[in-house]
Automatic annotation (TrEMBL), chain A:
Biased composition (Acidic residues): 1-10
Sorted UniProt keywords: Flavoprotein, Oxidoreductase
NCBIfam families per record: PRK07573.1, sdhA_Bsu
Region (Disordered): 1-20
Highest taxon in the source lineage: Bacteria
Pfam families linked: FAD_binding_2 (PF00890), Succ_DH_flav_C (PF02910)
InterPro entries named among the record's database cross-references: FAD-dep_OxRdtase_2_FAD-bd, FAD/NAD-bd_sf, Fum_R/Succ_DH_flav-like_C_sf, Fum_Rdtase/Succ_DH_flav-like_C, SdhA/FrdA/AprA, Succ_DH/Fum_Rdt_flav_su, Succ_DH/fumarate_Rdtase_cat_sf
Protein name per UniProt: Fumarate reductase/succinate dehydrogenase flavoprotein subunit
Fumarate reductase/succinate dehydrogenase flavoprotein-like C-terminal domain ranges (all copies): 511-645
Record-annotated FAD-dependent oxidoreductase 2 FAD-binding domain positions: 45-450
UniProtKB/TrEMBL annotation, chain B:
Pfam hit, one: Fer4_8
Name recorded for this polypeptide: Succinate dehydrogenase/fumarate reductase iron-sulfur subunit
4Fe-4S ferredoxin-type domain mapped to chain residues: 150-179
Family: Belongs to the succinate dehydrogenase/fumarate reductase iron-sulfur protein family.
Superkingdom assignment: Bacteria
Key words, A-Z: Iron, Iron-sulfur, Metal-binding
Cofactor(s) in the UniProt record: [2Fe-2S] cluster; [3Fe-4S] cluster
2Fe-2S ferredoxin-type domain segment(s): 3-103
Taxonomy of the source species: Bacteria, Bacillati, Actinomycetota, Actinomycetes, Micromonosporales
PROSITE patterns recorded: 2FE2S_FER_1, 2FE2S_FER_2, 4FE4S_FER_1, 4FE4S_FER_2
Key word Endoplasmic reticulum present: no
Amino acid sequence: MTEFYEDGDNIADTKAPDGPIETRWERRRFGAKLVNPANKRKLTVIVVGTGLAGGSAAATLAELGYHVKSYCYQDSPRRAHSIAAQGGINAAKNYRGDGDSIHRLFYDTVKGGDFRSRESNVRRLAEISVEIIDQCVAQGVPFAREYGGLLDTRSFGGAQVSRTFYARGQTGQQLLLGAYQALERQIGAGNVEMNARHEMLELIIVDGRARGIVVRDLVSGEITTEFADAVVLASGGYGNVFYLSTNAKGCNVTASWRAHRKGALFANPCYTQIHPTCIPVSGDHQSKLTLMSESLRNDGRVWVPKAKGDQRAPGAIPEDERDYYLERIYPAFGNLVPRDIASRAAKNVCDEGRGVGPGGLGVYLDFADAIQRLGRAAVEAKYGNLFEMYQRITGEDPYEVPMRIYPAVHYTMGGLWVDYDLQSTIPGLFVIGEANFSDHGANRLGASALMQGLADGYFVLPNTIGDYLAAGPFDKLTADHDQVAAARQQVEDRITRLLAINGDRTVDSFHRELGRIMWEYCGMERTDEGLRKAISLIRDLKAEFWQRVRVPGDGEGLNQSLEKAGRVADFFELAELMCIDALHRTESCGGHFRAESQDADGEAKRDDEHFSYVAAWEWGGEDAQPVLHKEDLDFEYVHPSTRSYK
Amino acid sequence: MRLKLRVWRQTGPDDAGRMVTYEVDDVSPDMSFLELLDVLNEKLILGGEEPIAFDHDCREGICGACSLVINGTPHGPQKATTTCQLHMRTFSDGDSIDVEPWRARAFPVIKDLVVDRTAFDRIIQAGGYITAPTGSAPEAHSVPVPKPDADAAFEAATCIGCGACVAACPNGSGMLFTAAKITHLGLMPQGQPERDSRVLNMVHAHDEEGFGGCTNSGECTAVCPKGIPLAAISQLNKDFLHAVRAKS
């Protein structure tokens, strides 16, 4: 027991098959029980979230013959935030003949994750990557093509082979529309019951199994209990705990957090990916940050002035007074170093006083060389939409002046703990995509999130969930069952409580303040002292929230303030756990940089001897400390080495 | 900047609705239009009023959730721009701005500026997909797609389903949305087997939802934030006629 948490038992079984890694997935699939087609009709699965993971899972499960109930808070499943992913999706197709292979994708991903992911999972991901591209092409996803009609690829941060498939700067959109269309086909066929504008507010557990959810219809305000034989959470990441992030405004942790409070372990919450190429903050009114695809770093060169406080316009700074710092420090990878490395390097030059733009929080991403080398038309063809978007937001023309970029919160590698079958610690509760923790380790390489979302949804879960469902269907439930009624009551009490406070501060004002604390103390750089301070500030702010927040209106209809209030309330609890996780991990790895743990060059110093594990946290109770369970990580095939990109 | 906003307030589908005037000070030119509404809403909440309900999510011009008819134009005055990407530098100090929801028979108002666009989903359900079962797809390189076709398909596929086309159309037609999907899938070899049934089913669903017919007024493409061209509708008409003839 420590000041902030208690120690629990180690996690003994991840259900990963042992033996040769090349055949683990095949053997697991073969070992999984099958459900007779006639019995699938009798089984119901709830899927929460309709992004790449949830949309593809719901479509595939329905296609297999299960009855699926799908939920999203947006007005249409097509609007899930996967749609905003810009850059691309990796696959070990080796179409370029540049030495790529399933093993190399596996190797790069384990190394890129800073040796904090599971070998078995990542190996499976690399294998499935090949099938994903086939699947998406068959669906009509308009990937970029070469003149000969074959698929084009490009390279992405952290890789030296060209394995990223893309659809201009809108790959996420096209992949999501593919999954959405497959889902709509199943809705049209009557195999999926779609519930848009519905939010999951509680998990229903009966006899130790996940058996349903409590949802609120965001239009009517009606609260209902929904039952199934298994529940799948595909509800995305929790980056919005920072208030400013590249997430959509509605992204939230509520579905995961409600499950966590009911017993699902939450793993590695402190691993936050900070994306190096976002448009810098312009003012206090700012509601979100916009990412500029990492693919821009293929042709854009990152630099700052060599001299501190150089206020000249970028064009007036001569070549020899510029510091192309990524090319200088990391000559082998240059501008294509992984995200955590590029982000920290940008922070460092800005901390030195060499940042550009308002407040000195920005670095240049310059296309002058590329325009000269390739011509404006070629640059426009590759990145036109991104340039346009930049111009809209900043009012500056990136063809004429370099873009200004700064790191921003983008993706969360932590999430609910799952085993190899993607099942959480609650039987019958499966978690896929960004909502789980399993494949990216402490750092996520570019173009691997789309890969994981679709791998989980199209290929992994539909195989593994059958093994669980083979024991179903389970007893029929009704709304008056004790545990069902209790879950519903919890939701109603919470809403009543939020509406009754009627204080003098808006939900947004609390969220912004929480975000500032998190960015300051649990952002790109963390210290023991800062994290302790953050925990105390969060606790105070949370107490104030429950006394002073004002949620206007009532629960009987569309009430966007009420929606936000519930989500922010959960962010407070998550934020505290993130800080506790970051505090206990006294090493630097991936997106988690502890200032106390760095080498003489200021590079992150990992501590494999003490921290080569997944930190999976158990909810301790309202007034008790969380309990830490460790899952030891074994590296048989990719031996941990210092992750150097020099 | 100081602005005067006249905003459509409607408590629910059965309320008649009305324009309500609000003054907003300290508007920064760097704000997006939705951030302007955020600032106004915080003021309303603290003043004891209900905030204005509006749809939004990604705020980077891609999810298609944001809407708003601004001074009579869906997504406002800037071409090829969603409301979330419209910045206040487009406006001037002292301007008066009208803000209304999408208005179309097939998009009923839910509250204030929020409308129901699920009719679009049902058009997709009718055939806006390729029937490709998971896990049995042919190798991706087995069917080459000429680059010009792939590029043209991509252009059509960039439709974000926001519904501005419907809001701008004097007939309340959703033809540009429907045509974008038909063009996208029809340009690719994978989309050929279902090409005829797709266009017949989608156009039928479109009409059933209460969208009006297309009379080529072109208002839709003028406001489309993704620049989907009118040529998509020509393609739809061509495919439709072909399908009707093939059927008879």
